[in-house]
Write a structure and sequence with these properties.
329 residues, alpha/beta, ten-stranded mixed sheet, 13 helices, 10 strands, 46% helix, binds pantoate
């Protein structure tokens, strides 16, 4: 019995090793990369990774295989980021907010109402400023492949329509694990609690928090109306920037010809993902309405902007922040 158990353990270990780095029929090395993110398998984060997988596997004749893990299966966004710095996760797509815990320069992107519009955001990120931010990632062992997005963040809640900042007074709201977001909601008079998305749904269902803020596509894909969320106010307070990233350790372990292909495919996927978000965002708002959620669409954002303006002072990299503002004048 004991002997049988040992045989099973040896066999399992062999299978595991084969999954990471194995030979193909021609005796060539096969590299298996693990890609993780926090959203479901019909979200553009995932669809983008699947497209990247298909292209990489085809162009490398199967010498690089990408396994894609949705729904935080490899960890929540903060853990995934840490995993890349340690070389335990190869590829990640994540919103930038939790990545700031490792790369503080990215916090400039969390300043509320930062971008005039989506086009300006894309122009800034795909230009010199975006490259500067990718250099900061590189210093922490992460390669920025391309800029993506999750849409504009809006507020949902279980108790009443939010039309002006005063309506947020005392509202218990889940925020991302990000100091600027936390400070902004404090300025608005709410009671913010930062937590990973993996904990947020239970917190909403159990009434630990009344509210959360995320793009409409997240509210739709997670059926937040079933988690007590009856109202959604289209504040669009943050353009939720995301990044396709690769662990520098993984990059260095891959032979040059293969890593060039992975990087090239990673570089083009952000734009594809962004188009999918724009397309799906409108449908998500319609679905939320059909499911009975009250959508507060025509609000005056100026008082919200005014209330959070002081959090700009908390941004550590002021020079970078001013560069972003100047680029949009
Ligand atoms: O709110 C968050 O934590 C993020 O927006 C999410 C849902 C994980 C997507 O990046």
């Amino acid at each position: 019995m004991k002997k049988k158990l040992i045989m099973v353990m040896i066999f399992s270990a062999m299978v595991l090793m084969a999954a990471c780095n194995s030979g193909d029929a021609d005796g060539q090395e096969v590299y298996t990369l693990q890609a993780g993110h926090s959203l479901p398998d019909d979200h553009p984060y995932h669809l983008g990774l699947l497209e990247m997988k298909e292209n990489v596997e085809e162009r490398t004749d199967g010498r690089v295989v990408i396994e894609v893990f949705p729904c935080s299966e490899l960890g929540a966004e903060r853990e995934l980021t840490e995993g890349m710095t340690l070389g335990t996760v190869d590829l990640v797509v994540s919103s930038t907010a939790p990545v700031t815990n490792f790369v503080p320069e990215l916090a400039v992107l969390d300043a509320p109402f930062l971008f005039n519009d989506r086009e300006s955001a894309v122009e800034v990120l795909n230009g010199e400023i975006g490259n500067e931010l990718f250099d900061a990632l590189d210093e922490k062992g992460i390669i920025g492949l391309s800029w993506a997005e999750n849409g504009y963040r809006h507020i949902t809640n279980s108790t009443h329509p939010i039309e002006k900042p005063e309506d947020l007074k005392g509202v218990k709201i889940r925020t991302q694990e990000n100091e600027i977001h936390l400070a902004a909601f404090e300025k608005l008079g709410a009671q913010p609690t930062p937590m990973a998305w993996t904990e947020a749904l239970t917190a909403l269902q159990q009434g630990v928090v009344d509210a959360q803020e995320n793009p409409a596509i997240v509210a739709d894909q997670y059926s937040l109306y079933e988690s007590n969320q009856e109202y959604m106010t289209l504040t669009g307070h943050v353009y939720s920037v995301a990044i396709y990233m690769m662990s520098k350790q993984t990059y260095e372990e891959l032979p040059e010809d293969l890593r060039d292909i992975v990087v090239e495919e990673g570089e083009r996927i952000g734009a594809v993902e962004r188009d999918m978000i724009v397309e799906m965002e409108k449908d998500s708002i319609e679905t939320l309405k059909e499911q009975g959620m009250e959508i507060i669409e025509d609000i005056d954002v100026a008082p919200f902007q005014e209330a959070v303006s002081e959090v700009y002072e908390l941004v550590e990299h002021q020079e970078l922040l001013n560069k972003i503002l100047d680029a949009q004048k």
